[in-house]
């Protein structure tokens, strides 16, 4: 019997006998609910906070296999501190130099899972054209059906830190702190 003569019923049985190959779920970042933010010491008196208002990207998750990936692009020009004068200064050459480096990216090819949930992203941050390893601890993770859109969504809060001088951002050191805390709230809709 040639392959073209195999009965359809036998092909169906063979197909059922093969293990299912589940692909990772893909999520598109919701820019209305994703705001990477930062905290840095301001002359030792207080903590200066800021965020970025425009973010895009994709997240892949396969909890069954304990794998996943993250690709996030942040529009550096969308920096928001609540103070226009400060935002204008941060866009200049001695800080984010947004004219030359319009985006900040974070990419992780490895996620660490515990109990079916990601707890750590082992990724790379590219800032001012310099790429460094930056792990992000995932402190909160939840998936479910969004009560308004009725779409499946996953959300997380991640934290990490960098030394801005390692990316070439040295203006006003040490008065303005070198260590920068990163706080990232993210939501993504399942594709």
Automatic annotation (TrEMBL):
UniProt entry keywords in alphabetical sequence: Signal
Transmembrane segments in this chain: where? none
Q: Where does the record place the Lipid/polyisoprenoid-binding YceI-like domain?
A: 26-189
User: In which domain of life is the source organism classified?
Assistant: Bacteria
| Stretch forming the signal peptide | 1-22
Q: What is this protein called?
A: Polyisoprenoid-binding protein
């Amino acid at each position: 019997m040639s392959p073209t003569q195999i009965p359809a019923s036998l092909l169906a049985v063979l197909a059922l006998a093969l293990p299912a190959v589940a692909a990772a779920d893909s999520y598109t970042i919701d820019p209305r609910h994703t705001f990477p933010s930062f905290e840095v010491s301001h002359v030792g008196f207080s903590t200066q906070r800021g965020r970025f208002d425009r973010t895009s990207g994709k997240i892949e998750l396969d909890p069954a296999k304990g794998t996943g990936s993250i690709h996030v692009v942040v529009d550096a020009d969308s920096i928001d501190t609540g103070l226009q004068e400060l935002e204008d200064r941060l866009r200049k050459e001695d800080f984010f130099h947004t004219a030359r480096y319009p985006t900040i990216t974070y990419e992780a090819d490895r996620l660490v899972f515990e109990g079916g949930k990601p707890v750590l992203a082992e990724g790379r941050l590219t800032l001012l054209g310099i790429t460094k390893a930056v792990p992000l601890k995932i402190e909160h993770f939840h998936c479910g059906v969004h009560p308004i859109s009725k779409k499946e969504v996953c959300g997380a809060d991640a934290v990490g830190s960098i030394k801005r001088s390692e990316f070439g951002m040295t203006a006003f050191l040490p008065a303005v702190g070198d260590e920068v805390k990163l706080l990232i709230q993210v939501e993504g809709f399942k594709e």
